[in-house]
Automatic annotation (TrEMBL):
Residues 27-103 form the Lysozyme inhibitor LprI-like N-terminal domain. It comes from Methylobacterium gnaphalii. Pfam families: DUF3298, LprI, PdaC. Residues 228-303 form the DUF3298 domain. This is Lysozyme inhibitor LprI N-terminal domain-containing protein. PANTHER family: LIPOPROTEIN LPRI.
Length: 323
């Protein structure tokens, strides 16, 4: 975090801070390898311009601390993008892909679904780490003008997340502690919103921990949708069976053994499946997330179970995903 930003990132950061006019960086003055790679590729340059425009539009509508938090997040993201893409075989293609994803986040574009009636905006929390402070990088979403119970519920959940953030280390430590969380909009319709959160936390132990959880909101009623709202016991048995088969195959492939190594594997899988906060739901597919330690040792990592919406609709009480 303390290293100097690459020239392209620094120029854009100045632009975003209002020091320069709101225009894309000048390719005639491109000096770094990354600048030259972007300017030499029309797709990369167009994606860069679109991303900058999306950021400028977003930040212009922000007030108070969020205005600075958004700028801090953009600067950090640009640095990370440049460092990641400079090592790729095609830096320009990497930049174009990264810019496309960033533009989607800045404009709150859902990964699937027809979209919402009301406007979502990204919400940022940033803190640079030090010997005493935790490095915090959090990006959530909130409704700009929450009017319905469902919209108010999402904002409440975002506020609760922010309130739970720890900023200070338990004791001074030269190691870099981190608290990261990113929300993505898996599915959005006027009636249903599915958020998937990924995170990583390191607080001075032997290793850090990754996390993932889903938040599924019925926007009509303002309720969090649970597993029993969608599936009965018979349906769960079918889902459990499918996930057990997938997980067993993955364990064998990873060299982590088969079900004979853990007689309780089926039970553990069932416990995860029946909690919808372990699910990511999209328009054509859903995934069940088996986090670290949930069905195996930490070293085994994370497992997943992929299910098509077509097969889930054969089992569900209501059409999926709700529209």
């Amino acid at each position: 975090m303390g290293q100097e930003l690459p020239k392209a990132a620094g120029a854009l950061a100045a632009l975003l801070a209002g020091i320069l006019p709101a225009s894309a960086f000048d390719c005639a003055k491109a000096g770094t390898p990354m600048e030259k790679a972007i300017c030499a590729d029309p797709a990369a340059k167009a994606s860069d311009d679109a991303m900058e425009s999306a950021f400028n539009t977003l930040r212009a509508g922000l007030t108070g601390p969020q205005k600075q938090a958004a700028l801090d997040d953009q600067r950090a993201w640009l640095k990370q993008r440049n460092e990641t893409c400079k090592g790729e075989k095609s830096p320009a293609a990497c930049v174009a892909d990264a810019n496309g994803a960033r533009t989607g986040m800045l404009t709150a574009r859902p990964e699937s679904g027809p979209g919402l009636k009301s406007r979502l905006v990204p919400y940022f929390v940033r803190q640079s780490g030090s010997r005493d402070k935790i490095d915090v990088a959090v990006q959530l979403y909130k409704f700009a003008d929450p009017a319905t119970p469902g919209e108010q519920l999402l904002n409440k959940k975002a506020d609760e997340d922010v309130a739970s953030i720890t900023y200070k280390k338990d004791e001074p430590d030269d190691r870099s502690w981190s608290n990261e969380e990113t929300w993505s909009i898996s599915y959005a319709s006027p009636d249903f919103l599915s958020i998937w959160s990924t995170g990583y936390e390191y607080s001075g132990g032997a290793h850090g921990g990754a996390s993932g959880h889903g938040l599924h909101i019925d926007l009509r009623t303002g309720r969090i949708v649970g597993f029993s709202d969608l599936f009965d016991a018979k349906a769960q048995a079918e889902i459990d069976k499918s996930c057990l088969k997938q997980v067993k195959a993955e364990k064998v492939e990873r060299g982590a053994g088969d079900d004979a190594d853990d007689p309780d594997l089926a039970k553990k899988i069932s416990e995860v499946v029946k909690d919808l906060s372990n699910w990511s739901i999209k328009e054509k597919e859903a995934s069940v997330y088996f986090g670290q330690y949930s069905i195996g040792a930490y070293a085994e990592g994370i497992y997943g179970c992929d299910l098509t919406i077509a097969e889930l609709n054969r089992l569900s009480k209501v059409p999926l995903p709700p529209r």
